[in-house]
Amino acid sequence: xxxxxxxxxxxxxxxxxxxxxxxxxxxxxxxxxxxxxxxxxxxxxxxxxxxxxxxxxxxxxxxxxxxxxxxxxxxxxxxxxxxxxxxxxxxxxxxxxxxxxxxxxxxxxxxxxxxxxxxxxxxxxxxxxxxxxxxxxxxxxxxxxxxxxxxxxxxxxxxxxxx
Length: 163
Ligand SMILES: *[C@@H]1O[C@H](CO)[C@@H](O)[C@H](O)[C@H]1NC(C)=O
Ligand SMILES: *[C@@H]1O[C@H](CO)[C@@H](O)[C@H](O)[C@H]1NC(C)=O
Ligand SMILES: *[C@@H]1O[C@H](CO)[C@@H](O)[C@H](O)[C@H]1NC(C)=O
Ligand SMILES: *[C@@H]1O[C@H](CO)[C@@H](O)[C@H](O)[C@H]1NC(C)=O
Ligand SMILES: [Cu+2]
Known about the structure:
CATH superfamily of the largest domain: Cupredoxins -  blue copper proteins
Number of strands: 7
Bound molecules: 2-acetamido-2-deoxy-beta-D-glucopyranose, copper (II) ion
Structural class: alpha+beta
Oligomer: single chain
Low-confidence stretches: 145-152
Shape: globular
């Protein structure tokens, strides 16, 4: 019974979290290519931990290299920590701070296929230090746990009614 309630709590927490997180299609309908000004695209967007970036592109011509600030400035994808090339890549923004992405093929980066964003802490979470499992779930909106507690109470009482 407690385990069932725990599962329900996790499902609710996940649902609430995904309702709060935003999925960004990089370049919107135009996708990831040479046609979009990604500085313009990122302008005014409030990127948060837990949000996702979706890169959609023709994998014969483009890829997505996650780089640092230096390699971003120099359009150097030769030692990218993360090279994505499926044509449909989703990146979850896991930590706050600046994130840099460039296309590593041909001279696309210097032609403008580069995106830098600034990721802020998750919404409504005062960003506790990620030290324990509890911090993974607790900023996931405490009202999910209140809901779970209510459910648990209901389940417990319906159980005792049968006795
Ligand atoms: C892209 O947009 C930014 C911000 O509006 C602008 O400063 C920049 O010149 C543009 N880049 C190109 C290549 O047009
Ligand atoms: C690109 O990065 C690689 C690996 O870090 C480095 O060896 C190379 O010198 C860099 N190239 C330029 C032009 O910065
Ligand atoms: C950026 O990454 C390159 C490897 O690609 C590394 O040589 C360089 O020291 C890094 N720069 C910073 C500021 O971390
Ligand atoms: C390339 O990246 C790897 C892994 O991050 C690192 O061990 C290596 O030293 C880097 N090479 C250069 C030339 O920066
Ligand atoms: Cu490209």
